[in-house]
Amino acid sequence: MKQRKRVFAALLAAALAFTLAGCGQEPAANASPTGSGTNPPAAQAGEEIFQKNMHQSATMDLKVCCETEDGIYVETEGAFIYFISKETKKATILCGKPECRHEDNTCNAWFCCQSLWYSNGKLYYRNADKVIENGQVVDDGDRLYSANLDGTDHTAVQRLEFTPSGDTNAFVTKRPIFHKGVTYFPCSGVLYALPLGEDIEKAEKIWGEEIPPDDSHMGNLNRLDYDLFADGDTVYFMVNLPQSDGTYKDTLYAYDTVSKEVSQVWEVPNADTVGTWETTGVSVSQWYVLDGVIYFYLSGGDYWKTDLKTGETVKLADTHEKTQYGSAVCSDTYMALLNDHPQGSDAIASFGSPWGNTGGDTIYLYSLTGEFIKELSLQPLYDKYDTLSHCAPTFLSGDDIYFLADCTVWGAYVGGMSHPEGDMVLCCINIESGEITEILTW
Ligand SMILES: [Zn+2]
After folding, report:
1. How do residues 183-221 score in pLDDT, each as one tens digit?
2. Bridge partner residues of 13 (DSSP)
3. pLDDT, tens digit (0-9, with 9 covering 90-100), for 244-264
4. Dist CA 376 CA 251 (whole Å)
5. Angle in degrees, CA 100, 18, 423, rounded to 5
């Protein structure tokens, strides 16, 4: 029940944010770093590559993150960015204004975004703005912004909507990606490519059919959620395509950024190839692409790969021997599998795993190619927090596995809604030592 309320509250919050004020005023932030902070680093050179490991989060509560050589930037409570030093694991809110109380959109750390990346010494993020100017509401629509690594100098870089609030599929997650100088973003059901800094009129259509406007702004929720990814010279996008029998199937397309060609390269295998799993025949629990091979984990099943050139599908590990269900995150080196499990008959299951998962006290670490390496225990956290109900892996960075510990307690019903009280704790566990560090609590 608990997770359903969280998701419902999140959906309601999203609906309110969308209908009322885009990313306007929000409740006060009360996140606090565990321990004293360090100052974010000065700007540094960076490669304009897509950070694959930062797009693997298995929890809706922490989807927005990117990293530099020195640190990791995460968004908490859907609004505020924190910097985490990779060396000390100390978190600092990305705002150095001495008088700031870090509670609204005047704070430097206020990004309120669904997509964040790092490139050439700057942070980039997508935001939708409605601002009051001379007593009038001015709607700037979806735009890409940049900011310095210390949270200063938020600057609009380019529009990501042809007309403000004109996206006819606005309720799907809009998580643009950046790859080799180009922003890839969906709008009204179509995927576009737009060189960084260029006007949207120069956007190139990559794929998809435009959804004509209606009053719902909903579009087809099953179909048009672009899950974007990139590896080498290829931009990948996973879409949920309708089948002749009325069902939907996760289908992967590849856009060759050199030849500019789009091709379908993969779709979710059938049960006769990989057996049954939580969402048999429809979607995978986690996927990752490296050098033309897709690696995918099936919760309720096993860990597999498919060579995207030959189409050959091979089992990499009998993960069900460790845990029947789970949530996974990948990097070029590792696949970390946490033994959490779905809430069974709870209605949240219809939203899809892993939103409604519970538990998770052991991480099974594999190489990306499926060799079992070791087990890591999260039990000390359960011993410490008696309200801890779920751990969810968020991303892998170097030899650290970051995960979110949900210690939320749901309060009394007020006006028909239950409100969360208590803590989400961002932690990491070191692969070598097994040591758990609590980084940030909100
Ligand atoms: Zn502030």
Report:
1. 999 998 899 999 999 999 999 999 998 888 776 655 555
2. none
3. 888 889 999 999 999 999 999
4. 33
5. 55
Q: Are 34 and 379 in contact (CB under 8 A)?
A: no
**Spatial CB neighbours of 141, under 8 Å, sequence gap ≥ 6:** 128, 129, 159, 160, 161, 163, 164, 165, 166, 167
Angle among Cα 150, 194, 286 to the nearest 5 degrees reads 75
Residues with a beta carbon under 5 angstroms from ion ligand 1: 95, 100, 102, 107
User: Could you tell me if 282 and 247 are in contact, meaning their C-beta atoms sit under 8 angstroms apart?
Assistant: yes
Question: 187: Cβ–Cβ under 8 A, 6 or more apart, which residues?
Answer: 142, 160, 161, 162, 167, 169
Sort strands 71-76 and 65-67 into parallel, antiparallel or unpaired.
Answer: antiparallel
- For the chain, give the mean pLDDT: 85
User: Cα separation of 304 and 335, whole Å?
Assistant: 11
Distance 418 CA to ligand 1 centre (A): 29
What's the 92 CA to ligand 1 centre distance in angstroms?
A: 11
pLDDT average, residue stretch 1-10? 35
Query: In the beta sheet, which residues pair with residue 147?
Result: 123
Q: Give the residue from 174, 136, 225 showing the smallest Cα distance to 17.
A: 174
Residue for token pair 């033309």: 292
pTM: 0.86
User: Ligand 1: distance of its center to the CA of 77 in Å?
Assistant: 14
Using DSSP, state whether 274 is helix, strand or coil. helix
Q: What is the distance of C-alpha 155 from the center of its chain?
A: 23
Give the span between the Cα atoms of 238 and 154, in whole angstroms: 31
Going from the Cα of 47 to the center of ligand 1, the distance in angstroms, rounded, reads 29
Length of the chain: 442
Tens-digit pLDDT profile for residues 54-69 = 999 988 889 999 999 9
Q: Could you please report the per-residue DSSP string of 61-110?
A: TS--EEE-SSEEEEEETTTEEEEEETTT--EEES---TT--S-STTSTTB
Cis status, amide bond into 354, omega within 30 of 0: yes
**Residue 70 Cα to ligand 1 middle (Å):** 22
Which residue's entry shows tokens 């993960």?
319
Transcribe 20-72 into DSSP letters: IITT---PPP--EESS---PPPPP--------GGGG--S-TTS--EEE-SSEE
Compute the half-sphere exposure of residue 329: CA atoms within 13 Å on the CB side of its CA. 26
